[in-house]
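Pipeline run #58 for the internal structure catalog. This entry was flagged by the ingest filter as a single-chain record with no existing model, so it goes straight to prediction. Upstream metadata was stripped on purpose; only the residue string is passed forward. Reviewer on rotation: M.T. Logging verbosity set to normal.
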Amino acid sequence: MPERIDFPALLAGHTVVIEMINSGDAGLPVLTQLLRVAQPALGATGMAFVEFGPTGGRVIAATGAAEWALGRPLAVDDPDTVCLLSGPRVRQARVSDLNGKLAGELAGSGLRRMVVSRAEIGGHTVGSLHALYPGDEEPGAEQQGVIGYLASCIGHMYGDQSGLPVHGDGPVVAALADGLAVVDRDGNVRLWNPAAAQVTGRTVEQALSRPLPFPLPPSGQVRDHRMPDGRWLRITSGDLPGPGTLRVVTFRDITDQQRRDHDRELFVAVTSHELRTPVTVIKGYADTLTDHWESLTDVDRRQAARVIGQRANELARLVDRLLSSAAEVGPGDDPPTPFDLGEALRSAVVDLPAELRRRLVLRLPSDLPKALGHRPSLSTVLTELTTNAGKYSAPGSPIEITASGDGHLVAFRVSDQGIGIRPEHVERAFDRFWQGESGDRRGYPGAGLGLYLVRRIVEQQNGWVSLRPRTGGGTVAEVRLPRG
């Protein structure tokens, strides 16, 4: 330790720091430069500044023999934290007098004494400045006076909010719901608030002094970016006052919004595709009847009316599906009650289209237990499953309906002999608007809503529905309900 402080070097170095501030520099670059100036002038082996927030402290700037501690956290209940936040604002201390983990690490690095001063704003502590020494000789009053002065300068920097606080535990920054980061001219993170850690899954320790985990948009612009795990972030950035050496970045998770936007676009695409065919057919036959009524035979007229009726029924059913998918489909507030599943299935079959009824083969045991649920909704479930089976199997091929029960569950199955389902699609098939094929070349019509509605209805009755490939070809849809 020198007998006297090198005041000329300290003043010259401090002038450089002030010029940095006047040129627009702020935050960590200025703070680190201040420590680099102070260390040789004070004859210290290392310098460090600990920033404090509501959840504890963190070493955000360090030089010399203390550089290893950069990023080191101090918990709010750590004995060293308690010691640093109490007692005189400026003092010297033996490292051996501290009882926390950091004190042991300092001693292990050969540092035995320190001069420490809290940086305060209106009595509120924002951090503590440390000059560290290896020997047993006590620093003099001059060292304490200079450290106190420099700590006050740092407190003034915090008062100006010039890129500080850094580790994001300031009460305002910590309360933000959006992720917030400050990056320096090299693109490295200098501030990382708690919301940023939550949104990205990257802790403060993992983020500080490293590049952002996503692209940085130009200042004043917004960018949506998909993360490797599939989530979407909306990112904005802007330059802090000055020549643009520091940039503030905010970001939020918009995955749900992206999904809603995707569903909306898919809804428009699917409905326009599915509505176009019946509307075109209805209009075509209606125009034919209007323009050529006298020249048509009675058979032709009846055929046209029959087609119009069939297509109108398809259109009505599609509209009903769309409305149901947008509403809360299900039994509502009615409590589940026991009902005869076999009788309910036979009744639901009667309401199916004639061409579909002719293909059905019912194999229902006479001693089938009652199910617990909402009987009226079973008609919708069976209609969707049998329609789906008929659509993906050859015309005229059988569609089998079977049922069984055990001590806890009652189940029925709809089996077809069609094209089958790939194992990787057995869950995706229940997604709203999902189609095994896409585009205008789809070989099978449909809005991708039937199975989505079935799953919602069944699960609201504490049951579940599944798909699986059928042995020998085709698909088996199975609905399981609690036993009544």
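catalog note: The chain has four domains: 7-160, 178-256, 267-326, 337-482.
catalog note: The domain at 337-482 is CATH 3.30.565.10 (Heat Shock Protein 90).
status: ready for reviewer M.T.
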